[in-house]
């Protein structure tokens, strides 16, 4: 069973657990098991098309799965998965963002 | 409501002023008690944006992961993100919104002529289309 660390703001959707242990041989299987166990998490992590939201990154131990095999990255029982957001921004003076 | 303690606030303002005229960024750590987010520690981070940083910032996910680990080890929670707007008001820009995450409070510090001026906190939605203003309390505010 792999361990998934739940970010603080998402614990309200995961019965207040800060981590859960779930079965799955790939990242996709573990993430599916996570949202099956806690359906309210699904909207937080996936968009209406079922794709992971753009700001959601998954790390296998300390490695970003985008640089491994993405969703197909193998997961072992001793592994820890972390959900980490991408965050950026800026004021409008040169960003054209106002 | 997000309430920032003296030590955390001093670290945030010092980071924002030190990085002026560039944007700074970092994480806020503490506890959530009901509707009150109590920030006790600030973790200043490197602005990882590649290019002119006067009006852009980017947090490395690896740095956030590390901050989350440290918070967990201390029995605390990662509850927010802060960044500065040099010579610009503390509002949530389109760039901020489009690169945000709905899970955290986003505190924006306005730094004018190198000195802290004012701050606001925002709660963006999951679709990154709207950010509500959140009540922000900092020392001596």
Number of domains of chain A: 1
> What is the CATH C level class of chain B, in words?
Alpha Beta
Give the C-alpha Rg of chain B.
Answer: 14 Å
Give start-end ranges of low-pLDDT stretches of chain A: 94-98
Instruction: Indicate the percent of residues in helices of chain B.
Output: 10-25%
Count helical runs of chain A.
3
Beta-strand percentage range of chain A = 15-25%
Coarse morphology of chain A: globular
- Stretches with pLDDT under 50, minimum 5 residues of chain B: none
Number of strands of chain B: 9
SSE series of chain B:
EHEEEHEHEEEE
The beta-strand count of chain A equals: 6
The residue-averaged pLDDT of chain A reads 91
The SSE string of chain A, one letter per element, is EEHHEEEEH
Q: What is the terminal-to-terminal distance of chain B?
A: 14 Å
The assigned CATH architecture of chain B is: 3-Layer(aba) Sandwich
Q: Which secondary structure elements does this structure contain, and how are they paired or packed?
A:
The complex is a heterodimer of chains A (about 100) and B (about 140).
Chain A: E1 2-5, E2 19-22, H1 27-37, H2 40-45, E3 56-60, E4 63-64, E5 80-85, E6 87-89, H3 92-95
Parallel strand pairs in A: 1-5
Antiparallel strand pairs in A: 1-2, 3-4, 3-5
Chain B: E1 2-4, H1 6-19, E2 25-33, E3 36-45, E4 57-59, H2 61-73, E5 77-86, H3 94-98, E6 105-112, E7 115-124, E8 131-134, E9 136-137
Parallel strand pairs in B: 1-3, 1-9, 5-6
Antiparallel strand pairs in B: 2-3, 2-5, 6-7, 7-8
Can you put this structure into words, describing what you see?
The complex is a heterodimer of chains A (98) and B (141). With 98 residues, chain A is of the alpha+beta class. Chain A has a single domain, classed as Roll (Ubiquitin-like (UB roll)). Chain A contains three helices and six strands, in the order E-E-H-H-E-E-E-E-H. Chain A has helices at 27-37, 40-45, 92-95; strands spanning 2-5, 19-22, 56-60, 63-64, 80-85, 87-89. Chain A has a five-stranded mixed beta sheet, with helices on one face. The radius of gyration of chain A is 15 Å and the shape is globular. In chain A, 31% of the residues are buried. Chain B is α/β, with parallel strands linked by helices. Chain B has a single domain (2-137), classed as Cytidine Deaminase, domain 2 (3-Layer(aba) Sandwich). In chain B, strands 8-7-6-5-2-3-1-9 form an eight-stranded mixed beta sheet. Chain B is globular, with a radius of gyration of 14 Å. Chains A and B meet through strand 5, strand 6 and helix 3 of A and strand 4, helix 2, strand 5 and helix 3 of B.
